[in-house]
Amino acid sequence: MRPDSARFGMTASEMMVINPPWKLEQQMNNVLPWLQKVLVPSGTGYHKVSWIVPE
């Protein structure tokens, strides 16, 4: 996560899931690399799946 910059347009975003369904972490780890390539073809973006409070 990083703060927004002064550049034009949306430069960063984040999504937090509270009480995620079983297997969501696995599904997100499968789909996020593909989504990153589609949304950021330049290759400068990144994704991360993490837990704030582990199970």
UniProtKB/TrEMBL annotation:
Gene3D superfamilies, per database record: Vaccinia Virus protein VP39
Cellular component, GO annotation: cytosol
InterPro entries, per the entry: RlmJ (IPR007473), SAM-dependent_MTases_sf (IPR029063)
Lineage top rank: taxon: Bacteria
GO molecular function, one term: 23S rRNA (adenine(2030)-N(6))-methyltransferase activity
Pfam families (UniProt xref): RsmJ (PF04378)
GO BP terms in the entry: rRNA base methylation
Matching PANTHER family: RIBOSOMAL RNA LARGE SUBUNIT METHYLTRANSFERASE J
Name of the protein this chain belongs to: Uncharacterized protein
Native organism: Candidatus Erwinia dacicola
